Write the structure tokens for this entry.
Amino acid sequence: MDVLYVALTLVFAGAMVGFVALCVAVEKKP
Amino acid sequence: MQANDITMLVAYAIVLVAASYPLGLFMARLASVEGLSSRWVTVGERGLLRLAGIRADQGMSWMQYAVALIVFNALGALVVYGLQRLQAVLPLNPAGLSAVSADSSFNTALSFVTNTNWQGYSGEATMSYLTQMLALTVQNFLSAATGIAVAFALIRAFASRSSNSIGNFWVDVTRCSLYVLLPLSVVLAVVQIQQGTIQNFDAYRDATTLEVTSYDNPKTGPDGQPLKDDKGAVVTEPAKTPTQTIAMGPVASQESIKMIGTNGGGFFNTNSAHPYENPTPLTNFLQMLAIFMIPAGLVFTFGRLVGDMRQGWALFAAMAAIFVVMAGIGIAAELHANPLLSNLGVDGSVGNMEGKETRFGVVASALFAAITTAASCGAVNAMHDSFMPLGGLVPMWLIQFGEVIFGGVGSGLYGALMYAIVAVFIAGLMIGRTPEYIGKKIEAYDMKMVSLAILVTPMIVLLGTAIAVVVDAGTGGVANPGAHGFSEILYAFSSAANNNGSAFAGLSANTPFYNVALGIAVWFGRFGVIVPVLAVAGSLARKKRLAVTAGTLPTHGLLFVALVVGTIVLVGALTYVPALALGPVIEHLQLFATH
């Protein structure tokens, strides 16, 4: 179970970094 | 309402302004790139930053700032998770508490990192002293510092004259922790101890009670964890005891930052209703003050840094207007007797005392509830679940406004500024001009990000509630089926996604379903808002500040205050009134129609 929840936390963090990338992409779109 | 209640309300308003104004001006110095000037005072800051290899004058783009913030908080979550899982083999565990279950550890880790402090567990029966201090209290500081840092970044963006940087996240977090949160916490902790709050590492004590107590004891499995049935509810068996165990611990040090950082996670299960957490009416007053002090102060920080204190006062007025009305409704509702109890012969002359501490009374309890939910604190000194239906609607709706009425430390101000931008945008549409706020043009990208920041939490709240009321794992935790049970679920998701942490306690939420679902809500409700807010900051920072002309909408007058109030209330009403109608509104009509 520990692996699952640690992985889930990392996935959540990754999702937020992805969200940052998405916002940057929207910003750069002409 | 009695004379001492009115005195308390007036004193609260006066002391709040008197304390938050200078604090706000002090925080303005911290938010500036230069920081404090005294080399003696800043020796700790410089030492810590040097140790970490950070240059204080090195700015970050909004993207770098956001990634640093996310990585920092994700690492914090992993540490909190690990400490809970390992607490049985770590020191400072005199009660011999076993490891916290994996799903509860996950929920608590995300909850404390996001400044939510939702607690599905009972603190004194679950967490060792080491976990309380090293995991939970540390995160109380760091999550609060994170919120203030984001507010600093956004304020600097408004104040800047075209820059690619919104500041340095590591510098902001260090300064907020060292110069604001730590000193205030130490002062409040000392006062708390003087008033009777405990601070020790003693083992729990057993006291013989006057009569034998009957209770339902949770059954535990071989691993020491509570056994649960198919629906996830804890399995209990009847038991009797002639003694009562009195929990001890380092309470004062956690209590002070819990209020100052608008965290809200209690050392004990009953939170600020417990006499060791909140022993006297004076500590109750100071705790209410501590909740609003930094959020109210940040409004003045904003005014100072953008060079026009009237801008700060305008936001303060908008927040205060909504707060006074909502708190008034809540207090009025709780001053009514509950007809169900009156029918049983209970004296209701002082109002609804169910779930309230006699040392605080109705008004101080209802006011505390309004303050703790207008801010993102979530500490409670009374059981919100026992409030009258409309008395319970007030804290729930205040949470659903997005906690921008003073709000959480940092999160309140950056949330309120999102609404201010919407207000300016709507005003711009009305008069056919490009909207401007504090001399910054509000353009399409800014509005997209503002919309995201405002819509993320309602989406999580309403979707989460909808899922929970249709799946067995969600309805299994409801002890009060019907309108009140719906209110309990709606409150839970509202509280989690808006990072409040208080609860309508009737919901059994320490189940894998709620631990994971609310874990998702706290995480995305926090960072799903922070990311677009930082994007707005990055965009605004790059823009030049335009001079005020005859065509500029004044954003310091009564008209703008009314616009901001209208925007907050309308968005909150349009988003949540249908759901509120199914919960507290129906409950109110049922209660008073039948009685």
Notes: The first helix of chain B runs from residue 3 to 31. The mean pLDDT of chain B is 94.
